[in-house]
Protein 1
Amino acid sequence: MRVVIAEDLALLRDGLQRLLRDNGFEVLAAVRDADSLLREIDAHKPDIAVVDIRLPPDFRDEGLRAAIEARKRSPDTAILVVSQYVEQAYARELLADGRGGVGYLLKDRILHVVEFVEAVRRVAEGGTALDPEVVAHLFSSQSAGGPLERLTPREQEVLSLMAEGRSNQGIADALVLTVGAVEKHIASIFSKLDLPQSGVDHRRVLAVLAYLQAPS
Amino acid sequence: MWSRLFGKQAWEEAIFLLSAAPLGTLWFSILVTAWSLGLGLLVTPLVIPIALGMPFLITASAGLEAALARRLIGTRVYPPHAAFLRGGFWRRAFGWLTEPAMWRAQAYLLLRFVLGFPFAIGMGTLLGLSIGGLAAPFYYWSLNGGIKMDAWHVDTLPEALLLTLAGAAGLVITMLLFRLLARPQRALAEELLERSPDPADKTPRPSIPQRRQALVARAASFGFAFTVLVAIWALTGHGYFWPVWPLLALLLALGLQAWRLFADENSEHWQHPGLNHSIAVQAGSSAMVFLFLVGVWAASGGGTFWPVWPLLGLTITVLARAGTLYFSPPGQEELTQRIDVLTTTRAGAVDQQEAELRRIERDLHDGAQARLVALGMSIGMAEQKLSEDPEGARELLEEARAGAGQALRELRDLARGIHPPVLADRGLEAAVTALADGSPLRVHVHTEIPQRPSAPVESAAYFVVAETLANAGKHSKAARVDIRIIRDGDMLTVEVADDGKGGADTTGSGLAGLRRRVEALDGTLRVASPAGGPTLVRAEMPCG
């Protein structure tokens, strides 16, 4: 799997490079600003770009803007945005085009190497990876007494893991359930929230996110 | 009409005017005693304790007067700020002598006697007579020979009822006068005491043509009222021409209003050295008051020409103000006040920054730094165990990773508290919306920010919302919060209102810190949080 990295801090840039290489990725380029990132994406058409939000020259949200731009220019390149902090607004902007192949994670998640690598793979394959903090926020902003409260606690757990972008297998592993049990929970959630059933994992996740982001 | 003449406000204004009799006398005796003692003992060391005590005496007296004026006639005035009560010995003893506010306060206290006393006595008499007349049917029979009104003896019921009618008319006029006299009193208090810097309070003045119409209408109604009184006088058998008293009062009210209008209409007349518009208003009004007192003197049968004393007081006040204006460069006093304000707010800002830095240092020391030490220790021990106890080493590394995650979280919260990234990236609206999203309360955000204010103003506005929203969530049991952020020209207004139980501690460290932060930007922060709610916090900051 072919990767481009954009991170301005040398320490983290080298660390990410080594981590991804050790886990079987082919790192095509590791750059330190948004312009070089767009150039490398144009040149290599990688499977995925891992991008820090804060990049030179202003250290604001250059990475995010570059990521959104890259998705327009090179629709086949998935984007995983990493940052020291998460903002709802940024998650919304990243997910706005309603396509998969996008992720938004705190840099903290890199500490759990196995899960992080799994998330990079998932996003590269067209899935999503949304930070648990963003998901928790989406849940807490749902109005009290809304349809979410009709879900059982276990179904809520399944829903938040789904919103994070995990596959059925991933959810089953995390909650120590069988895949069959997870599928049953998901069917029940979809009928309680009145969402259209869909066979494909990614589509389902996007439907859930659209549901959670809708103004309540 | 009834509530305007006899409502709570009317009686409060009456009480304020009447309070001039006891209070004015008190201030007069205090000031005269203190000054004559001080001047008499000027060359002896005994002057020192008197000089030290005077500012306290003056601020305390003016403080009581200001509180009365705020409570009863609804002006936002305050006693002189006691800045000169701090500092070195000589500054404490004599610094107040150079403070214009202290002289104005003393002038106010004196005028409460010189002007207030005669008015209080006159109006008190009028009020007493009116009530006496009103109640005539209840007691005329108990007096031997009836109620004596000069030549007229009220000793039958119809006569008593006529007197009641006159009393009622008198009461209406008295209350009308109380209401009319409240305005010059308010103006006097605002002129001589310190006004609160409260731009929200300003009600637009009516235009000149509107005021001219109002004056004509008032003159007509006074003419009518006076005719009624004369008719009553004529009906009740002539005798002493008592309508002269209300006539004098009505003429004074009319004269003051007319002069004020004239002064405002011809504002270009007052552009001379030692003269400005407000001194012109004061001089003309003083002349009116003097004429009124002469009228009182004449109507009460002459004798010693006592109005010369108030005339002296009024003239000195006008001359003193004109002299100050003539000799001090324009704007001097405003500049001095401005420097005082800047000194205070800068000190507040520095304190605030100092406290903030201390908090950050403490958070770093107890949080992330300590965690990194523990992290290093875990990794060190894991290194030792690696060969003989790989399982133990794995556990230690797991701990180390958890510690690193915790340290990251703490640092992130700390950074957010210093300057939230989304504020710099996306501006106030996005940042406040993010706050609202994260709040457990139902928050409604309304913003009109056509142009981004400067970063310090944005950041102060953000923290006003963050802090008050957090307070609303923690203490107020509010269900709904309304946030309004509006930029109107060069002024940014931030309002946070909740429907909670109120009673917020406005001196608590959170709000005090916010206030210092806003004041450092030349803004104002006001908190209204009566027990029982609701709470409204409003910050206004210039952002040009």
Protein 2
Amino acid sequence: MADTSHSSSLTAEGEAYWKANLRLIVGCLIVWGIVSFGFGILLRPLLSGIAVGGTDLGFWFAQQGSILVFLVLIFFYAFRMNSLDRTHGVDEE
Amino acid sequence: MDQYTLNILVVGATFALYIGIAIWARAGSTSEFYAAGRGVHPVTNGMATAADWMSAASFISMAGLIAFNGYSASAYLMGWTGGYVLLALLLAPYLRKFGKFTVPEFIGDRFYSRTARMVAVVCLIVASVTYVIGQMTGVGVAFSRFLEVDASTGLFIGAAIVFMYAVLGGMKGITYTQVAQYIVLITAYTIPAVFISLHLTGTPIPGLGLFSEHTASGEPLLGRLNEVIQELGFGAYTVQDGSPLAVMNMTLFTLSLMIGTAGLPHVIIRFFTVPRVADARWSAGWALVFIALLYITAPAVGAMARLNIVDTIYPNGTAEAPIAGADRPDWMNNWEVTGLLNWDDKNGDGLIQYYNDKSDGFAATASERGWQGNELTVNNDILVLANPEIAQLPGWVIALVAAGGLAAALSTAAGLLLAISSAISHDVVKATINPNISEKGELLAARISMAVAIAVATYLGLNPPGFAAQTVALAFGLAAATIFPALMMGIFSKRINDKGAVAGMLAGLIFTVVYIFMHKGWFFLPGTNQFPDTIAGSLLGIQSTAIGAVGAVINFAVAYVVASRTADTPQHIKDLVESVRVPRGAGAASAH
């Protein structure tokens, strides 16, 4: 079950790992917000000049583009975190 | 072979498959019952999560919502997928590392508070039960339309199938059945969409077809759609209501759906089934891949179906007379029987006038033509189910869509029922009533809770409370305002203590529920609302469906203020938080 028994004091390595993780999360969430709330909703009027198949780029982001970016973001995060785990020695095996 | 026999054969074959899986995947331990022994491959779990998540609402209702609301329905598309980014980055890997069985268990342990655990149990049960009612009624409707039995017989058959694999197999049985159900539902959704896209645009991929040229007119498909519906007085399909209040509501609604999705317990517990923390991260990505296969197709299905309906009613263009009622195609007759499609010849000319009679700009044209109101109403929910008939596809495609709708409803119902029954057997019976219960005793308690939950869901499906359709806002609002913030603070803050978490969850819960009741009626009783549920009339200028995001902000703020004025969290809790933040040490929990 949960490994609560291991040493409590946070090592410098552990702290660097968590900070790197937080930076990665913030970066990914900025992109997440820009493509959906930004391009798809709030900034759509600014993108209205860019035509895409009978409508504009904002409509494409709202109905299709944001979903594709979400996919890229999750796989990018998983890939980067799994390598961060290894470089900081906190991976599972 | 007639359509009825085909439907029976295809639906019967899928049910036989689910029962076969139930017998093969029986659970022998609580770990298997609650978490499938934590031995599920991340891709398999991704597929099961997709079926778990995509309910009757995604399969049956969403394309219809998009067809009749156009751009503004994008909130569903972004909201129901964007939540997976939050789940993958903020919750799933850490909760997998924690390595227990239920969502309230994490909240109870992390905030060292039985009260916090019980508040979480209440939120989980309310959100999941309201959600499951919709699935059960969906099963009844699909049966009555395609298999010509009455809705209650259909509901009993569906409940019996879920009973087989959920009670016997728990999470293990549900996981492998959901994989089979995903394959059935995605095939059923995609095949008609491909045919329709080929027919309208010549492109076999519906997601590309949506932005391609409409073969018949030589214009872009969406441009053509805008044109024909505007000629009938409707607003343009792709237009955005740019008023600040409308933009704010769409933003908050999308955000509420996103954090509500990430906070729904039946989705979160799926990530407890994979062997490692790294697998939980990959698995969230795979879940979204399988979900996106449907969600990229849905807006194409919506737009193409809307165009097909207009073309069916106005075969010679919107400037010419519509078709006569006597000449209407069979699919309209079939659906009129269910009451979900209705033709009312208001001006008695025998023709079907379909237009927007609420448009002031179009009123002059309508009266000039002798039209006395819109004569055709189409329920959002029939669009996907009627699609193969509208496009005149072969009978086996219609049968497949029936099986797909049932797969979507049953897979989600089973996931919800597991979340409910494990909260009862693990968080209530084991944690509160009888802490010394044996492994065998708990497994039996889990099976009994599951059977009771199925019985309650079936009863509610047979006698749906009048408010069933309204309660989706409640399920997402509760998950967004209570469960998501509590989980996130539990992982990302060491400072939020027991009192902060309980105060935050209660504040988010009470605010959200009261706001929804004030706009939709107290306990959803009609006429008891203080404010109309429109953007302009609402208390804060926010529709009740979009209020979950505000409830979440209140939860965070109250928790922070209360925690900063009360005793710090004890050392062993800080250690617990540190341990969930690193993956090392999680693998040992798996039992293959």
